[in-house]
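thread: overnight batch results

M.L. [08:02]
morning all. the overnight job finished for the chain we discussed friday. pasting input first so we're all looking at the same thing
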Amino acid sequence: MRIGILGRGNIATALGAGWRAAGHSVVTGARTGPVSLTEAARFGEVTLLAVPASAVVSVLDHVPPGATVIDCTNDLSGHPYARITAARPDLQVVKAFNLSHDSVWRLPSRVFGGRPLVVPLCGPPAAVSVVRPLVAALGCTPVDAGGPSQAALLESTAAFAIGLWFQGVDAQAILQPLRADDGADLLTR
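M.L. [08:03]
and the structure it wrote out:
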């Protein structure tokens, strides 16, 4: 798949390297440099928004109408997904890759304790189906976590986990795996 990445920061380089290693064609664009934001966005069948959340709306003019876009941004003071979809309702936006630090994407494997990392995807079903193989290409398990209305929950989950990490708490420890028959008990409590 052809992937255009807007931004050249840590998450852009980490995900870009992983996708290149998996055989995808990746072009990274920035405001300054050999490849412009517009060139990168027009190259991609999918465009990754990997700029600071404060700049995400300002780069949307570079993305062609109707494009499938991955929003991996986090903003502890708001919801970038809602700002993106309000500014460009013509885009097919999927919230993904925002729960893990860039260092996770640089690892040779994203399998922990024998379990592949799960990457929740929130967005329109057709766009989620386009992004799902990009998650699998990184050795992770894609999970359809719901439509666009669920993106705010995914962003809030990231904000909550980041807050715990800054306190020195292992956020992963709060989400232990369940056996198949345990799930029903949770719903009746």
